[in-house]
Amino acid sequence: MPDQINWTALGVFIFFFVLVTVLGFGASRWMSSKQDGNHLEEWGLGGRNFGAWITWFLVGGDFYTAYTVIAVPALVYAVGAYGFFALPYTILVYPIVYTIMPKLWHAAQKAGHVTAADVVFGRYRSRPLEFAIALTGVVATMPYIALQLVGMEVVIKALGLTGELPLAAAFVILALYTYAAGLRAPALIAFVKDLMIYIVVLVAVVLVPMKLGGYGAVFSAAGDAFAAKGGATGLTLKSAQILPFATLALGSAMAAFMYPHTLTGIFAANSADTIRKNAVFLPAYTILLGLIALLGFMAYAAHITVASNNDVVPALFNALFPSWFSGFAFAAIAIGALVPAAVMSIGAANLFTRNFWKPYVNPSVTPAGEAKVAKLVSLVVKVGALVFILFLPTKFALDLQLLGGVWILQTFPSVVFGLFFGWFGARALLSGWAVGIVAGSLLAFSDGIKPVHTYVIGGDSYTAYTGLVALLLNIVIAVIVQVVAGEKRKA
């Protein structure tokens, strides 16, 4: 990474960062109603007024994050084909969105629910189950926000800046315009962010191979590098990797839209039809993701060597592109951190306000009071994420985010099952959630916080995604408790 400031790249970076800052503060007057931000639905869900076009950018913006742009090529650079699990995962997720999310939107819109935990309480009338779903959402979101800071930190260092002040300043600005404009700020900024990311990736996948001798040379260099590494790395999956690859993709797809930030984008849509249209057209982002992943292979052809795998993408751009384009690319990645970080903090603030503050602290809080609490909590969440990344090792944030995926998947039965059938009661679902959380955590810790676990059955070894195994156990326990207790969900 550079040890001195690249002033041209920094100038371009600052220009686009200032642009989105102006958009962020101006967003409070964009599509606003008479209530403005003095109502939680207005501040936290944009008035439930986002059509297909805005929702496409918003959901894509908070699903495909800065850390995605940094981490996916880094994983491909490190392990090869196994790093491409994100592609089938993002293909599988959209049929799930198409089938489930319109029903969830209807349930939320009909009763004025703002969070998934609201929907769960509305269906099962169980405060303990509501609390469990809300707590899981908040805890799983915090390290996810911190990882957006990791993505921003990587590109700031690639510009030659040192120290933590630039990162802190960027997040303070984010905190202020999110406080002022709520969900409208990241929704508006997402237009700029996605356009910039598409430009960067399309230019890279065309020009980088041209500079390196074509895709044949790219794959040849990567293949030679993986052969030298040995082990499980390579351009294709080894037979032992197929099951963990498939289960990781399926489990990740089921978990993706259980996170508060992705559900916030869903609840902000103006109709169920908007969600269906997005499920049809959002796979365009999967094409983009596949192209992003190829940057990991290109780094070998460019003879890039880095101290950390996360530095691969910035190092590649610094090596092969003029400074002005590197600055543009780094700005795109940094802005790609702002959009999801804002939505994540809003989703966590909505959960705290509706599912902790209102039921346990101030049941008579007004809509304006809810909005005020949510705004303050969104600031606290961002400060917490900033402290997290400044004072704790990055690996700790990554480990917690991997655990967060296992945990958030355990909310799937409580959030989804009641949309299709009413057989399960709250006690059964809460029991399944608790067992899934404990079992998934124990398996993950026993593997050194890795996403997959190996089981020996009849002398044969099988490796599968820990979160999916915990979910199966979750469902089995819920069925057993339901049969034994015979509890029916309350009408």
Automatic annotation (TrEMBL):
Chief localisation class = membrane
CDD domains under this entry? SLC5sbd (cd10322)
Q: Provide the topology term for how it sits in the membrane.
A: Multi-pass membrane protein
Classify the source by domain of life. Bacteria
CC annotations in GO: plasma membrane
Subcellular location per UniProt equals:
Membrane
Q: Which family does it belong to?
A: Belongs to the sodium:solute symporter (SSF) (TC 2.A.21) family.
Q: What is this protein called?
A: Sodium:solute symporter
> Which species is this UniProt entry from?
Duganella aquatilis
